Amino acid sequence: MADIPRPVTVLSRALDQARAALTTLDPEDLDLPTHCGDWTVRDLVGHLVAALGNFLAMARGEEVDWSAVPDVADDQWAQHFRADADRLVEHWADRSEDEAGMADWQSAEIGVHTWDLLRATGHSMPLDPEVAERGLAFLQQGLTEENRAGAFGPPVSVPDDALPYDRLVAFAGRDPRA
Question: If you write DSSP's letter for every residue of 102-154 in order, what string do you get?
Answer without folding.
Answer: HHHHHHHHHHHHHHHHHHHHT------HHHHHHHHHHHHHH--TTT-TTT--P
